[in-house]
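User: Can you predict the 3D structure for this chain?
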Amino acid sequence: MLYFSELKNKKIYTEDNIYVGKLKDMVFQASEAPYITNLVAKSHKKDLMIPMEYLKDINKEIIISKGFKVSELQENELFMTQNLLDNQIIDITGDKLVRVNDIAIQDKPGYFISGVDIGLLGIMRWFGLDDYLIRLSKKFNINLSSQFLSWADIHPLELSRGHVKIKKELTKLQKIRPEDLADYLERTNVSNISRILNVIDEHTATGVIENLNINYQTELFRQFEPKKGAKIIAKIDAEEAADILISLTKKRRNEILDALDSKSFEKITHLLNLSRTPVGHLLTTEYLAVPSSDRVKDVIFKVNEKTREYFVLFYVYVLNEKEELVGVFNLHELLLQKQETSVYKFMHQNLITIHLNTPEAIVLRKLVKYKLYSLPVISKENKIMGVVTFDDVIDRGIKHYE
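Assistant: Here is the predicted structure, written as structure tokens:
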């Protein structure tokens, strides 16, 4: 049995002793039989993807054929480092979320992933301390071993290229709390979320949708048939439902409303009618928005130059070339970065936004639910118009009841 931690950074030579580079990563098939298909060598000029057919030996060094050729990533192939190591996976057998600390590789001809290590030894192996930890545990009569999960018992959630293979066993996902499952599904994409929702029961699926970020909710309801959308809308919290419907086009919103039962229709339309009261009077233009190409030092300069007279500054918003709102970060996150880092590299892309016609009750609920100090108000064209702060919403509520 080999472990990826033992292989990474090993030197790669051809059989005639020509240095190629160090092992940076390995590529595997995203399938029931996850065979290793390529070695990824980090060379002086660029990374080389070398098919496993050229592998001669793995020992202190990795030896490959002298006439090797390079390959490219295929449709069903994924990187170990990027797509599996350190990522969250779902343990189908135990119905829980765990983290991959190391990857076990069967070292017989036709190398393949046999499973993953999710325990402490998987972490210590990267530092070469696993043997020491085992010896130490024996002194205290502690039986320490790898926490190993077979490939057959797990299913990766975060596959960057979206090829999630849904198994019938994944119905066990419904045993995970909806809010926890929603949390991790937000790290994948809408296509994968849809596949997961299709294999869990209706009640669990509704709970997951209700706990998703509004951006994911909006995209899902754009895809749902009106009858399916209405069925889900009727089951979730009325205020949440109204918030989702407001984010949709008028045509799609009316299609879903028309498919609702009379009781749900009456309750939700009442909340939607509240949206006629704009939040314009709560809007402040004391916010900072910067281009996505700005570096950390550029933003710090703008904070000093442009926000001296601001009452408070919680977040910095990020715009693309069309001046559309695409990201956000707070000042603490800014100061943790290196001066030359571009903001698009660390900004949060899943923004929580509101519109001028968003009811105040929903604005407050969003601020509380997502633990935010302020929310950006955007136009139909996704241009930022201003922000609404938590303090202003609270002050408005107090004055309303005085």
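Residues 392 and 398 are 10 Å apart (CA to CA). Confidence is low (pLDDT under 50) at residues 157-169, 398-402.
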